[in-house]
Specification:
With about 270 residues, this protein is mainly beta. The chain is globular, with a radius of gyration of 19 Å.
Length: about 270
């Protein structure tokens, strides 16, 4: 049994914020805004999954990620499927997922160059409690005024298609090639499997479960790590205390005790349930 509290890495972004989320200290008012907080494994480990918090004050770039096969063809370790648990959103916040109707890649490229791609995307209103799974190949953009937890394959291969005139590099050739410019189809959610367990994602790249507070014993397969993400509340796992805003990796057989009213996420790679 092993429970490890992960270190945090703050990432400054032009679209980030100076007011973050309870549990995270705000950056200095005259400093750069923070857009992401990553949870990092000790040493130089490169695990299958990466857990982040995102804080947005502006729209993120319109982007797309390759799948595993496309990534391997470019010598990269993996593609990037990701999902988002929305913690907070302003009244008019939106996320773009897919295109409003199918378009061809020539049209996609032209729209990325002239900026009309914004109007081809399907901008969906979001609110606290929403959940979205964005598979590789999905054209997407996270809007302003959103706080979310992201669970993703551990890859930072991002192809920007459009960035609202910001002076950052675009990746039109690579991005158009891996894009699937069609309307978004929600990932099937298995849903609740018991009174104290809801399956949000069941593979193929990872499993994501949501648990209420209480007592729980889990056993992970050999050489498989799990990520415990307390959304709210606090608790102890094998003598290691945790609270909202932190993240732990678990291995082997673990005993978890969390306060009543806690809200926990648990992620692990693969398709088999623990």
């Amino acid at each position: 049994m092993t429970a490890t509290l992960l270190a945090t890495h703050r990432v400054e972004k032009p679209w980030g914020r100076h007011n973050l989320w309870p549990g995270f200290p705000d950056p200095a008012s005259d400093g750069e805004p923070v857009g992401e907080i990553w949870f990092q494994m000790p040493g130089n480990a490169t695990p299958d999954l990466l857990i982040k918090y995102l804080f947005t004050s502006e729209k993120l770039s319109v982007q797309v990620h390759p799948n595993d096969e496309q990534a391997h063809a470019r010598g990269l370790p993996r593609g990037k499927d990701e999902c988002w648990v929305i913690l907070d959103a302003e009244q008019d916040s939106t996320i773009a997922l897919g295109t409003r109707e199918p378009i061809d890649r020539d049209t996609l490229r032209a729209a990325a160059l002239d900026g009309s791609i914004e109007h081809l995307l399907d901008w969906k209103p979001v609110k606290a409690g929403d959940f979205f799974y964005s598979a590789s190949g999905t054209i997407h953009a996270i809007g302003a005024g959103i706080t979310l937890i992201e669970v993703q394959q551990n890859s930072e291969t991002t192809y920007r298609l459009y960035d609202y005139g910001r002076p950052r590099e675009l990746h039109l050739d690579e991005g158009v090639a891996v894009s699937d410019p069609v309307p978004f189809e929600p990932h099937p959610m298995p849903g609740r499997v018991s009174d104290d367990r809801t399956i949000l994602v069941e593979g193929p790249k990872f499993v994501l479960e949501r648990w209420p507070g209480g007592h729980r014993n889990i056993t992970l397969p050999e050489n498989v790590s799990g990520w415990l993400i307390p959304v709210s509340g606090e608790g102890v796992v094998d003598g290691v205390a945790f609270q909202a805003g932190q993240c732990l990796t678990l291995e082997g057989t673990c005993e978890i005790e969390s306060a009543a009213g806690s809200d926990l996420l648990f992620a692990y790679p693969g398709t088999s349930r623990i």
